[in-house]
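agent> Task received from the user: take the single chain below, predict its 3D structure, and emit structure tokens. No templates, no multimer pairing.
agent> Plan: (1) validate residues, (2) run structure prediction, (3) serialize to tokens, (4) report one or two observations.
agent> Step 1 OK, no nonstandard residues flagged.
tool_call: predict_structure(input=
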Amino acid sequence: MNFILVLRQWMSLLALGALVFVHAQLNTAVIDSLLVRTTDAFDVPGMSVGILHKGQIVYSRAHGVRSLENSLPMEPETLVGVASNSKAFTCFALAMLVDEGKLNWEDKVKKYIPEFQLHDPYVTQEFTVRDLVTHRSGLTMGAGDLMFFPDGGDFTVQDVIAGLRYLQPESSFRSKFGYNNNLYIVAGEVIRRVSGLTWETFIEQRILQPVGMFNSRASYKRVTDRSNIIDAHAPVNGVVEMLPHDWSELANPAGGIMSNIPDMLTWARFLMNKGKTASGLQLISEKELHTLWQLQTPIPVPANHPYDSKFYGYSHGWFVSDVKGYREISHTGGLLGTVTQFTLIPELELAIVVLTNQQSGSAFRTITNTVKDQFLGIEGRDWLQQSQERWQSFEERTNAQKLAVEKVLRSDRTDPDLPAANIVGVYEDPWFGKVEISADRLTKRFKSLRSPALSGTVQYYKYHTYVVRWDNRSFDADAFMIFDVDEKGVVQGMRMKPISDITDFSFDFVDLNFTKVEAEKAD
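)
tool_result: status=success, residues=523
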């Protein structure tokens, strides 16, 4: 009887394998159609998609244009900034150094960076290399990102290390997930100090080239041939426009790699080949590869999950979960005007890569989930419709937030609680540095002295609050400026917060705490 049961199970597995193979072949046309409809639905100028199954590329196509400026066709070979998918490479580099006996995951960060310091002395002493890359520091999401985002600032790695001590935690150490890019910058500095190579050189020489990712580069500036590369795009006042590349070289360990579909599928094949290259070179031990995919920081799973997931969380540069009983290893990436997604389901020998040149996460989720459904044998779900409905609801809510503020700004209020003469001056935050608020008879202006891209017009809102409207409208990150006054009504400092939930978390206004250090006279 046991033999019959085993035989039935074996035959069921064979049937499932056949079903998966048929689905993979028959749905090529479906993915083609979905690719076109998705780019149209979310105003994505160009998108490329790659699917690897059982070691073979079963889909590698693109639709649209790589840039609205030149209208050249998007291709699988077109280079895209993979953004936070770079984090997996940073962790892979650390794992290689662990294999070589040059560091340990449980080593204290201060062993390699003695000047490393967080707000809490105990956390500083206990903080490990593993803590750098598992998002469990206790800091707010995106804490300190304004030291590298948007691009154009003058912050250095040493500035980032020095600034961390001023970022106050929102939760206790190792108690919850809080996504943080700056700690990946510190991890990149650990790699440099341990290996003697810059992060960029290590990634290219020790990983990209041996793996066979010959067209990929560790940073935008290291791409010398830009004949087939995207421009970034984002909605500006409701119309999608081309944006200049915006990513600081300072943050490369958190999101700097440029790649394309063939190279990212080569990366996927290498990972699913247990860290062995096509030529047979073992770059990482199976033990350390296993470590990279072990859950470290749990994240709550919603009820009624569409893939019946029982667990979800972060490992070392990867999100890990289960989908319909299979382990999923994945990550997304986002820059201003670019988003990407990389997904592995090792037991199905399946990899899905989606690269775009517009910042619509709904687009890559639509493609990835549709492909997953095909290989999992799930029918009848329209992910494009679901994504459109979800995005429309989110847009309605965030637009309502912005409209409520706009109505107040447009109203006729000639007697603000804080006249211009009181708010103008120089303000200083301990990690972000100085900003200046100036005024003449017609306008008031905000200018960051260390991050010039953060410049904008200041308007009175109500009570002790103003709004700054950034000159670069693609930011979609206008913010409240809440002034602190003493008992005499004299401004002593200022705090900030975004006015809309659509604002990217890397506009880390909530961690700023400005003190007024110099008063100026309004014209």
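agent> Step 4: summary for the user.
The first strand starts at residue 46 and ends at 53.
agent> Done.
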